[in-house]
Amino acid sequence: MSESVLRVEGISKSFGGVKAVQDFSIDVPRYGIQGIIGPNGAGKTTIFNLLSRIYPLDSGTIEFAGQDVTKQGQIEVARLGLSRTFQNTRLFTGLSVLDNVKVGLDHAGKYSIIEALFLTPRRWKEERRIAAEAEACLEVLNLGQYAKLRPNNLSYGVQRRVEIARAIVGRPKLLLLDEPAAGLNPEEVLELIAFIRLIKETYDLTVLVIEHRMDLIMSLCEEIHVQNFGQTIAVGTPSEIQVNPHVLAAYLGEED
After folding, report:
1. How far is CA 52 from CA 42, 69, 70, 79, in A?
2. Is the pLDDT assigned to residue 166 strictly greater than 80?
3. pTM for the complete prediction?
4. How many structural domains compose the chain?
5. CATH of the domain at 59
6. Arithmetic mean of pLDDT, 209-227
7. Pairwise CA distance, residues 65 & 63, whole Å
8. Which residue, among 49, 19, 34, 32, has the nearest Cα to 206 in the 3D structure?
């Protein structure tokens, strides 16, 4: 059996009287791709916010990279190797593509605040190293031609790929993708599917993805968790999920 990079047991989160996530569990094997789907309001993004420690848990446990991170914060789990994107692109429009990707390595600069303030040789050396790593990432991901451009001069599909590049330049163990195909046309979705396969193979990533676009989910994911009103109603392979009556009921509003 493959070693797991993420083990989640019975996590729950309520906001007032609304149970956003109820008793959610998942085991994500290293180097795998799993998906979470469900109608709007099913609690998918809340799950990601719990996993990335943006929200505290009401109950349950999270083990990531072999460590119990249930009570850890965002910074701690990020340093352990968890990275994510968000539903809406969050690129800095005033920076170039290269500088946006460099932001993903800000934490990796090996110089002190004093060295940064006084522009010491060590600070400049680290800045050159970070720039070289970001440039190499863009080249590997076939985004090098956009390095000097601003994000708002790029198509939405390319912006999405740049955002993912920023999330993986620091070589995380686990990448959480929150609706990466949102707003993309069918051709851009196909390009994104190929791109996710490329980053997984190139960086030996484990990927957990939330998505409404079934063509992406069914093409990429080895296992799918289906959420509805905060509860898990099905877990299975793409072929199993496609014929599951509970899933069909959640999406079509009726069940045999």
Report:
1. 18, 10, 10, 11
2. yes
3. 0.89
4. 1
5. 3.40.50.300
6. 95
7. 7
8. 32
Question: 56-109, pLDDT tens digit by residue?
Answer: 999 999 999 999 999 999 989 998 999 999 888 889 999 999 999 999 886 554
- 182's tokens: 């949102």
The residue segments making up the domain with residue 187 are 4-252
Length of the chain: 256
User: What does the H/E/C string look like for the chain?
Assistant: CCCEEEEEEEEEEEECCEEEEEEEEEEEECCCEEEEECCCCCCHHHHHHHHCCCCCCCEEEEEECCEECCCCCHHHHHHHCEEECCCCCCCCCCCCHHHHHHHCCHHHCCCCHHHHHCCCHHHHHHHHHHHHHHHHHHHHCCCHHHCCCCHHHCCHHHHHHHHHHHHHCCCCCEEEEECCCCCCCHHHHHHHHHHHHHHHHHHCCEEEEECCCHHHHHHHCCEEEEEECCEEEEEECHHHHHCCHHHHHHHHCCCC
